[in-house]
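In the lab's daily routine, each protein ends up as an entry in a very long ledger. A line of letters takes care of the sequence, but it says nothing directly about the fold. The three-dimensional part falls to structure tokens, numbers that each stand for a local backbone shape. The outcome of that step, for a single protein, is printed below.
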Amino acid sequence: MRYPHSRHGAAPRGRSRTTFAVMLVGTVTAALAPARAQHSPAAKPPAPTVVVLPLVMSSDSVHTDTTSIEHGITALLESQLAAGKRVRIASHSGAQSAPLSSNATGSAAVVARSRGASHAVLGTVTRVGDSLRVNGRILRARDTVTFVLEELTAPLDEVPTLIDDLAESVADSIAPRTDATRGGPLFRPPRPPVPFAAVTLYSRAVKARAAGDPDTAVKLLRQAASIAPQWEQAKLELAALKGKP
């Protein structure tokens, strides 16, 4: 085809310029592609996996109402760590049923490695008058190096807040915050007080659930929710149990 007003059938100048512009854009885009790849954010590494072993009641705790509290403390700690999303919880049900002797360093490392966890959380819980004291430790599974966490103490009606602080301490030790999120204390809305009787009932419910007695667990959780209607954790646990077949 011959274009009018053009010599030797050449395309008009406008068409030639358009073609050249398209070629130029394509060349620049291809040249910039490697640079864009270099500046694209790297894939976020997976969160480290943690197994929470049952925190053991200290022999100093002689009160009969604390015989099952370690089960509730362990369950609350797992829940708060999972909610924070900086670490993953390994084998939730297995950790709850682990023998208390696994609190020993060597056994804890074996348990952690068997569940694919890089770290294990272990420690003791002690009732001191009207307060609860937690001494936590973090064990690195690959070489059994142990890191001692700051001792935490709180009144009995502030146990959920105590566990919040413990979970934050564990996460900070295993998966420190990035520069973008570091620079000040993590804001958490204040928790309302929770009667220790409700925490005790919750702990007994967790123990009953681990023993395969969901009916008793539901009954205990209902009692806990009636004592502390503002405590969301008891309601969530109750809803989860009632929702299971």
Q: What stands out?
A: The mean pLDDT is 76.
